[in-house]
Amino acid sequence: MLHHFDLIVGTEEEFHIAGGSTDTLTALANVRKVSQATLVCKRGAQGCSVFEGAIPGDWQAVKLHSGVRVEVLNVLGAGDAFMSGLLRGYLNDEGWDQACRYANACGALVVSRHGCAPAMPTRRELDDYLAREQQVPRPIAMRA
């Protein structure tokens, strides 16, 4: 089935299942063996990584599109919001850096609110957020 797709998006755990390994890069390499699709691996609060060719054997060789640090109130809808942002950039040929920026911001906006569907940002809200993201207060990282 995977060989039919041009774009495959999933969490590390979803790629573990699809690729038959609990090591994410090995799982991605296994998916790559059956599909030349662009692979987007959602890496939680860290952000996401895009793989268009061969899968490297080391995370040091993988570009990380950094996530947005927010206080998480609710994870419902985060994946849907991420995908909406990613597709905005992808379908408008804005490049992976911008698509991932949209995706990570949409996911962050949704998890920082209560609810699911009502928490989805509009295009205008996303653009406003990204235009002033440096001014948005961030939670202080907790230390163990």
From TrEMBL:
Gene3D superfamilies membership: 3.40.1190.20
InterPro entries attached to this UniProt entry: Carboh/pur_kinase_PfkB_CS (IPR002173), PfkB_Carbo_kinase (IPR050306), PfkB_dom (IPR011611), Ribokinase-like (IPR029056)
EC assignment: 2.7.1.92
Enzyme class: transferase
Keywords: Kinase, Transferase
Occurrences of domain Carbohydrate kinase PfkB (ranges): 2-122
Gene Ontology molecular function terms on file: 5-dehydro-2-deoxygluconokinase activity
Alphabetical list of PANTHER family matching this protein: 5-DEHYDRO-2-DEOXYGLUCONOKINASE, HEXOKINASE FAMILY MEMBER
Family under the similarity heading: Belongs to the carbohydrate kinase PfkB family.
Name of this protein: 5-dehydro-2-deoxygluconokinase
Organism: Serratia rubidaea
